[in-house]
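Running co-folding for guanosine-5'-monophosphate.
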Amino acid sequence: MTENKRAGKLVVISGFSGVGKGTVVNRLLSDYDHYTLSVSMTTRKPREGEVHGVNYYFVSNEEFEEMIRNGGLLEHAGYADHYYGTPRSFVEENMAKGKDVILEIEVQGAMQIKKVFPDAVLIFITTPSAGEMAKRLIGRKTETEEQIDNRFKRAVEEIEHLEKYDYIVVNDDLDDCVREINGIVETEEGGVSLDPKFKTRFLSELLEIIDERMQAARARLAAERSHRK
Ligand code: 5GP
């Protein structure tokens, strides 16, 4: 007897740095058995504790470029001086088996996926406010000050693309967020439609945070200089 399964969906999850995407994705994988996660390929070096084949496939520039040439990637993008991309075969095989395949990728990659797979569900996860994002990003103490600054600047760019996502989900309470995303994937309903006021408020708060950090950095520099005199 042949099984007549529906083809799986492609679920793209993006979101600002510090929003808890990794935790949300892990919960989707552990709470429901219809998901699987695509492991991306990257040219960045592994961070402490990261495992090849689990967190990423860590490859050289040459290997990555070879994959692009051979059509082995569904999408790829440059982020912070490194390549990131989604291997094609895993996604295609698992969708054919009926699995909903999660891609945790950034905005440029998400847009490429939407072009090739118009039925992909694009979900953007955000914190309730930029202040909350700052609190989480600074609080987790895994990035240098410079990396934190870059992630705030990146968020300013990302916010411009918010409208291109099918659903915006606020990660205020983890359980609610996970349930809401699963509900969206199963029924394609839910999420908040983008309130233009949310975007403006988030952006102006974000710019204020960046300004304050720049002022603090200038003050530190001035103090160091006067100390050296
Ligand atoms: P990180 O270096 O912090 O692991 O990831 C940096 C960014 O790259 C994150 O926004 C992450 O979602 C994104 N990313 C990870 N894998 C891929 C991928 O395969 N394709 C694209 N376009 N972005 C990815």
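Result summary
The two ends are 84 Å apart (CA to CA).
The first strand starts at residue 10 and ends at 15.
Job closed.
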